[in-house]
């Protein structure tokens, strides 16, 4: 029954120190240009979103180690806080029991909204922080791909708030509406069968750490590179977050036992790919 359970994206925001730049001025222009070209979400969607989430593909460098990455991350945190980005949150996620040719891990950035993202990137690229990080921690990571094309932004809608204190598990599914179905149908399912499931699940698991969000891509998937088993077209991404990784199995058992009505309702309006599961940890908190 490895379909989706509670469809929704994660609002934990992960951060990765951004990709390397061969030339600072050209790098700034490339990133800003890329972000402007790929964003497509309607103003109405942005107005309703709870936040803006970016996923950044990262490859480990020859000097990568957990200790080297932690040292680079701490320097990154100190530097961006110093330029007024205290509100930015971030996490790191890596595939759980699978691997990708596209990345070793992803950095996830959680912005308050798209305007904050635009201002934040402009400040970051103008500050010289990336050059400083690369000089102090050379060849630890390479994030963002060629000309920052591996940075993917989503408008995020929180459905259930997770409880995340340290390590966590997160699952993603890319979903498309069936013919004639839309976000209005999704809202009806969330307010109906999904809410009924959550009510019983919370009653039986009062200390639950699970949460869920819906992420709507702010770009056309047909115009970007996608990784393994991700469709070239999708309407939204469902994300499930377990602050306690061991609760993952608990949730799926509950779905097997009393989640049939919920799953039938979701399946009637959407088609989703197989859930991709990642292990994560927080990098930057408030």
Key features?
single chain; 286 residues; alpha+beta; Alpha-Beta Plaits; 2 domains; 10 strands; 26% strand
Report on this model:
This protein has about 290 residues and is of the alpha+beta class. It folds into two domains: about 25-155, Alpha-Beta Plaits; about 155-285, Alpha-Beta Plaits. The chain has eight helices and ten strands. The protein has an eight-stranded antiparallel β-barrel. The protein starts with about 25 loop residues before the first helix and ends with a strand.
Quickly describe the structure:
The chain has about 290 residues and is of the alpha+beta class. It is built from eight helices and ten strands.
């Amino acid at each position: 029954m490895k379909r989706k359970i509670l469809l929704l994206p994660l609002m934990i925001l992960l951060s990765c120190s951004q990709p390397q730049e061969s030339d600072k001025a050209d790098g700034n222009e490339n990133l800003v240009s890329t972000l402007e070209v790929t964003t497509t979400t309607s103003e109405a969607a942005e107005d309703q979103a709870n936040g803006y989430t970016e996923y950044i593909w990262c490859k480990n460098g020859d000097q990568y180690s957990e200790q080297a990455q932690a040292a680079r991350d701490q320097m990154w945190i100190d530097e961006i806080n110093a330029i007024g980005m205290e509100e930015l949150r971030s996490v790191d996620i890596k595939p759980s029991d699978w691997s990708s040719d596209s990345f070793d891990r992803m950095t996830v950035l959680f912005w308050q909204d798209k305007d904050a993202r635009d201002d934040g990137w402009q400040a970051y690229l103008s500050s010289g922080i990336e050059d400083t990080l690369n000089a102090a921690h050379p060849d630890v990571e390479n994030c963002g791909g060629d000309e920052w094309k591996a940075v993917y932004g989503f408008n995020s809608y929180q459905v259930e708030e997770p409880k995340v204190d340290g390590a966590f598990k997160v699952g993603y599914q890319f979903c498309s509406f069936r013919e004639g179905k839309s976000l209005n149908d999704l809202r009806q399912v969330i307010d109906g069968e999904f809410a009924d499931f959550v009510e019983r699940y919370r009653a039986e698991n009062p200390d639950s750490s699970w949460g869920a969000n819906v992420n709507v891509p702010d770009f056309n998937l047909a115009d970007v590179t996608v990784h393994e088993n991700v469709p070239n077209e999708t309407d939204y991404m469902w994300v499930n977050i377990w602050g306690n990784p061991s609760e993952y199995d608990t949730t799926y058992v509950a779905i097997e036992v009393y989640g049939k009505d919920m799953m039938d309702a979701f399946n009637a309006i959407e088609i989703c790919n197989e859930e991709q599961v990642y292990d994560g940890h927080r990098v930057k908190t408030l």
